[in-house]
Amino acid sequence: MIIALYLVTCYLAGSVLTAWFVGKWKGGDLRAERSGNLGARNAGTVLGKGAFLLTFLGDGGKGALIILLGRWLDLSPLWVSLGFLFAILGHLYPFWLKGKGGKGIATFVGASLAFNPFAFAYLAVVFLILFAILRSATLSMNIAFLVYPIYFLWIGKIDLFLIFSLIVGIILWRHYFDTQDSWNERWWRKKSS
């Protein structure tokens, strides 16, 4: 019963989209602006750096909180990682917004850092190296995110590897068009130089 309540709580917490509240606070609806995405990037583009930071911290904070809640309930890492998955699903597909949420980056960052700081540190290092080479946050992030599940494979936690592979796969799928645009932009830049 506790596990079922935990997973439902994770989904509901994930479905609380900071960008929606920030947009309403500023007198608008971010779903009708620019990309229409309820995430930190769109909030920052439309409303400025303060809105980006507030949205990123809000979404990252809820990700960290669901991990801390799972630990407080003394659940196994497997159940906590499933709570992580449910929070991501809530963020991407909130029931109260007809399944149109954010893309999960900030929520993933907060939850992954809280779940395993070592795996997150490897992810961050790979991101920084790739960003220095590629000069694209989107492309660097998409590749670096793969490091997180690989860490659990490396330490022999196959169950966690599978769950985090699913989480990363869902997030990368949601970023498909952003990734495509970034590759095309990079290709045209290279071709024209």
Primary descriptors:
2 domains, 193 residues, acyltransferase, mainly alpha
In short:
By secondary structure, the chain is mainly α. It has helices spanning 2-14, 18-25, 40-47, 49-72, 77-92, 105-115, 117-134, 137-144, 147-154, 158-174, 176-192. It is found in: Cell membrane.
What does the secondary structure layout of this molecule look like, with pairings?
Layout: H1 2-14, H2 18-25, H3 40-47, H4 49-72, H5 77-92, H6 105-115, H7 117-134, H8 137-144, H9 147-154, H10 158-174, H11 176-192
Helix pairs in contact: 1-4, 1-5, 2-3, 2-4, 3-4, 4-5, 4-6, 5-6, 5-10, 6-7, 7-8, 7-9, 9-10
GO molecular function: acyltransferase activity
Protein name: Glycerol-3-phosphate acyltransferase
Family: Belongs to the PlsY family.
How is this structure best described in words?
This protein is mainly α and 193 residues long. It has two domains: 115 residues, no CATH class; 78 residues, no CATH class. Helix 5 runs antiparallel to helix 6. The longest helix has 24 residues. The model has no long low-confidence stretch (mean pLDDT 86).
